[in-house]
Amino acid sequence: DIQMTQSPSSLSASVGDRVTITCRASQSISSYLNWYQQKPGKAPKLLIYAASSLQSGVPSRFSGSGSGTDFTLTISSLQPEDFATYYCQQSYTMYTFGQGTKLEIK
Amino acid sequence: QVQLVQSGAEVKKPGASVKVSCKASGYTFTSYGISWVRQAPGQGLEWMGWISAYNGNTNYAQKLQGRVTMTTDTSTSTAYMELRSLRSDDTAVYYCARDERYCSGGSCQNWFDPWGQGTLVTVSS
């Protein structure tokens, strides 16, 4: 099974900050990587698919990059509504999620 | 708009079964698959399995093989997930999600969008 490891597990930041979350796969997954945002009590929401493609309706401050085993999700300027938990997901061989990164207000 | 609406919360005793429904609207049901994902309290996301709404083919997570069955009813655009022999560690919110697939240049990518609102299943004696 492909394991996905996110870092950090939690992160404190301020409105306006630039934030980067990393996701590492246990083997190469090419660009088969998606990112989701989840707010408390809500279902996850797709942000980025195929490593770097922005889902329709998602603000352009979100971006994704990477290929192979190392991927990043970047939020260029944090907004109050961005404080949430973020998950990466590999779709190379069925599906596995990372353990999540909780983004909190500093 | 594309929407998945799930059935309501359930409380079950250990050893019982639960069947969660997921009704799709706003798109051609048979053109996509449905994946099921669960989330234990305070924990991360766990993929449970996938079903093709086109032909009923399934692929289950190895951990749940033998206890889970996923089905669809194309006449009502509804997907179902049944989990048997429930244990306390099956307590979780269960989500369905449209499994979107895009193929280009000989390779295909998959992602989940949208998701249902979630169904809380509590297993307790």
Task: Write up what this structure looks like.
- The complex is a heterodimer of chains A (about 110) and B (about 120).
- In chain A, about 0% of the residues lie in helices and about 50% in strands.
- Chain A has no helices and 11 strands.
- With about 110 residues, chain A is mainly beta.
- The radius of gyration of chain A is 13 Å and the shape is globular.
- The model of chain A has no long low-confidence stretch (mean pLDDT about 95).
- In chain A, strands 2, 4, 5, 6, 9, 10 and 11 form a 7-stranded mixed β-sheet that branches. In chain A, strands 1-3-8-7 form a 4-stranded antiparallel β-sheet, with no helix packed on it.
- By secondary structure, chain B is an all-beta fold.
- Chain B is about 0% helix and about 55% strand.
- In chain B, strands 2, 4, 5, 6, 9, 10 and 11 form a 7-stranded mixed β-sheet that branches.
- In chain B, a hairpin with a 5-residue loop joins β5 (about 45-50) and β6.
- Chain B is globular and about 50 Å long.
- The termini of chain B are far apart.
- The chains are: A mainly beta (about 110), B mainly beta (about 120).
- Chains A and B meet through β4, β5 and β10 of A and β5 and β10 of B.
